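quick q for whoever's on today - can somebody do inverse folding on this one?? i tried earlier but teh output was garbage lol. tokens:
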């Protein structure tokens, strides 16, 4: 695809049937909808990539973030057949969750020799940013909706890049 076609496709996606239905479901005024495109650098030395939901999608009443992460550029959204990512819950039920993390693994990556894709410190760093993103979106945009803070969630794509494994947030959107 050319860049021009890709941009047009992204902008047009605001008015797809799926996009329309999702706004209807969440009672979002269609006239308030807008589209933006983020263009960022490529991640040539990607060490880990993943998707996080700032909600426990398995047990909604247990406060935790659901994190799926895989090594290098292996997709966690549409992985090749036979690939399994680290899938974990980062529990946020106590005030020292970031200093003394409670991490519950659901599955481990089958391509990382039994080693967790992220260190405990990286997982805690990611969780701190997930909290900041969730708070910013909720209190700036969604506070006056029918969702309370604990029902509200964000869908966040992230990368750890380079030998120093620097965290990059690629995308954040309401879940």
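ok took a stab at it. sequence:
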């Amino acid at each position: 695809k050319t860049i021009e076609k890709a941009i047009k496709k992204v902008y047009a996606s605001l008015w797809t049937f799926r996009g329309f239905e999702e706004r209807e479901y969440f009672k979002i005024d269609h006239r308030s909808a807008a589209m933006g495109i983020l263009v960022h650098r490529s991640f040539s030395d990607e060490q880990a990539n993943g998707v996080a939901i700032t909600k426990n999608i398995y047990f909604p009443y247990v406060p935790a973030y659901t994190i799926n992460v895989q090594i290098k550029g292996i997709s966690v959204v549409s992985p090749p057949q036979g690939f399994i990512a680290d899938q974990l819950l980062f529990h946020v039920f106590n005030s020292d969750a970031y200093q003394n993390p409670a991490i519950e693994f659901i599955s481990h990556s089958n391509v990382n020799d039994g080693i967790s894709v992220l260190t405990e410190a990286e997982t805690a760093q990611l969780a701190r940013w997930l909290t900041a993103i969730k708070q910013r979106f909720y209190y700036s945009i969604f506070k006056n909706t029918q969702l309370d803070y604990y029902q509200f969630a964000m869908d966040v794509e992230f990368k750890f890049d380079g030998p120093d494994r620097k965290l990059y947030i690629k995308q954040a959107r309401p879940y």
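fwiw The longest strand covers residues 166-174. also The first helix runs from residue 3 to 12. so keep that in mind when u check it
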